[in-house]
User: Fold this.
Amino acid sequence: MSELFLNAVTKRFDGTTVLDSVDLTVRSGEFMVLLGPSGCGKSTLLRIIAGLEMPTEGNVVIDGTEVTDVPPRERNLAMVFQSYALYPHLTVAKNIAFPLKTAKVPKQETIATVERVAASLGLTELLDRRPGQLSGGQRQRVALSRAMVRDPGAFLMDEPLSNLDARLRAVTRTELIELHKRVTKTFLYVTHDQVEAMTMADRIALLNKGRVEQVGTPEELYDSPQSVFVASFLGAPPMNLFDADISVEAGQLVATVGEVVVHLGIDAADDGIINARRLTLGIRPERLRLDDRDDHTRPAQPPSGIRLPAVVTLTENLGGDVLLHVTVDSVTLCARMSRVGAARGLGVGSEITLSADTSDLHVFDPENGRRLHWQHPAARPVHPQLSFT
Ligand SMILES: Nc1ncnc2c1ncn2[C@@H]1O[C@H](COP(=O)(O)OP(=O)(O)O)[C@@H](O)[C@H]1O
Ligand SMILES: [Mg+2]
Assistant:
C-alpha cells in the first residue's frame, strides 16, 4: 500500500496554468476521489502521479521517496483508464497475464497469479472468452485484474465507469467499493460525477480550475462546504445560494431580500461576521420545510428558525419526493420534500411559508466565496466542540 504525496505541483501547457500549486496527500490504503468539473486538471494530476507527465514545478513523493524524475514503470502504480484498452484478439486470461508476460514472469507463476486475481474479481468462468463477448462491467473487471497482477502499491483510475450505462455504473460502483475493501490498496479515483464521489470515497479532493478547493470526507464537504464552489458542486438539486443585505437588530443579524426580512438567529458579534453588510446565504433544498402552523404532528418551530414567505412557480414530481420551485421576493429557491406530506395539493401560484433551522444555514463571504465560520448558538453551551469550522 502506497502513500502518495504531492507538494506544490504546478503544471503549465504553453504558458497556460492547468494545475496551480496543488498540495495533496493520499493516505496509504484509502479510497480517495479526485472530483471536479471537466477541464479542471484531474487527468493531468493523475498522469503526473503516474509519471506520464512531468510537473512544471513541485514534487511527487511515493512512500516517502521523491519520484518526480522516476519513470512510470518504476513507481509501482497501476493505471486504469476510461477505455479499458483490452486486446480484442486475446482471451481474458491472456489479457490479464499480459503484464506478467512482458515482465518475463515464469509460466507456472503467471498461471497461478492470473487464477488468483481472476477469482478475486469473479472472472474465473470467463477466462476463455474474448473481450467482445463480455459486458461493459466484466470488461472493466478484466482491466482491473490486469492492473492487479503486478501487485501495485496504488491504483490510479481515470473515469473508469463513464462508458457504462446508468444501471451498470451503479452495480460496478458497488463492486469497486467491495474490491477496495478486499485488496486494501490505495485508490486514487478520478471522476466528474458527484454521486460516484459521495458513494465511494473515504475522502474527496475537489478540484476547481487547477486548485484544490477542499479535501475531506463526503460528509464534511456536503455539510460544511468551505466555499460557494464546493457548496454548489455537491448536491442535486444544488444548494440554494442568494445574496442578502445584512443589518443588526437587538444584537442579531437580520437579512433583507427585497421586501422580505429574515431573522437569521446569528449573533452579530460572532467572529467572522462582524461588520458584514452583505452575505451570501446557502440552504440545501432538503432542509427547507413547509411551515404548517396547523399541523400539530410537527415539532414546534424553534425560536431561532428562519421563515420565508414564498410563491410556488413550478413543481417537479420525483416519485417519492417533490421539488418545489418558489420565489421569495426576487430570489428563486428550490425545496425538496416528501410528495405525500403537506406538499400534496400545492401547485403553481400557491402561497406558502418555508421554514428552516438556523443551524442549516451556510454563510459565505460574497467577495471571495469563502465560508464564514459562525457557531450555531444552540451548539455553544452544551457542546462547545461542535463548531461550524
Ligand atoms: N497535453 C496537453 N497540452 C495542452 N493542454 C492540455 C494538455 N493536456 C491537458 N490540457 C489542458 O489542460 C486542462 C485540464 O485538462 P485535464 O487534466 O484533461 O482535465 P480533466 O481531466 O479535469 O477534464 C484542459 O484545459 C486541457 O485542455
Ligand atoms: Mg479527464
